[in-house]
Amino acid sequence: MNLEQRINAFVKLGDFISQFSNEAVQKKDNVKHNDIFFDGFKHQLKLAEEYNGWFTQENIKFALSGWSNSLTLENLSKWLKPYQLDAVSPKKIAIIMAGNIPLVGFHDFLSVLISGHNVLVKQSSNDKHLLPYLAKYLEYVENDFKGKINFTEEKIENFDAVIATGSNNTARYFEYYFKDKPSIIRNNRNSIAIINGKESNEDLKNLSEDIFRYYGLGCRNVSKLFVPKGYNFDAFFEAMYHWHPIIEKAKYANNYDYNKAVYLMSEFDMLENGFFMIKEDQSYASPIATLFYEYYDDIEQLRKKTKVEANQIQCIVSKGFSENEIRFGATQKPQLWDYADDVDSIAFLLEI
């Protein structure tokens, strides 16, 4: 199977996914194998939400929309153009996936297969319904993928390299366990936003998407704000308010109530608006329904701080702070070439 075949297969997968990325699921006449897969995937979306309450239909479809937009001939060709992928000697690459947001491990899955390797996937129990079904579709549109894709719930064995994502604790275990294998090991990271006080209402509304999408569970979600000394949060809270229906989701509301009670009993200072709290804190990882903030008075000192602590930061959302910054509202819309932890997984796969 050559690179063109692999790309075309994922383009067809993108076409299939596109049917499920709108408010109304809509079956298209020109999508291959719809008679076999369309209704089944609708059922998988339902199962995914029933099994994991954080995976609402809205959030699943948002994730699918992102992938349907990425899996185009134009985007795949642009992504892969810098690499030499036609003479890869196929190896078996194990992927240990997280399960915090829908299809969070799909980029690794795509990278392994598009580069010409075989994949062995160990999924999180929180996200086990969507990817195996999409893998079956991929095998239907390109028969040569059969035998190259395997899933396991057991201990992974007989592999040549590994890409593993987990918490800081599990990452230490991964580093020890896989010390004799080529590996990419990812641990906890969080995203931050740098506010200068000159943001428009539109900027702040866009920022709310970075904060609340997926309930803040992704590493690309903003969990920490840096604001100038004396910053007035009124405009910020006003821009967040259109997300207030989020409190109607029981799992989110339970976390909001619990964390609010902890802060009140501990007599911590915090501001809240009935569905969301902000608390001054030096940590990067904030609990659900909470955003941490920290004041700064010297932008250059803040630049130095973010460089020193870069291994804790996934994305920086700002205007004019950093050359690698992400615009407000775009953290959950990464491009194929936006690698997690800035580790080029395709380059890694080509070196094995």
UniProtKB/TrEMBL annotation:
Q: Would you say which domain of life the source belongs to?
A: Bacteria
Q: Which UniProt keywords apply?
A: NADP
Q: Which InterPro entries match?
A: Ald_DH/histidinol_DH, CoA_reduct_LuxC
Q: Which SUPFAM superfamilies match?
A: ALDH-like
Q: What is this protein called?
A: Acyl-CoA reductase
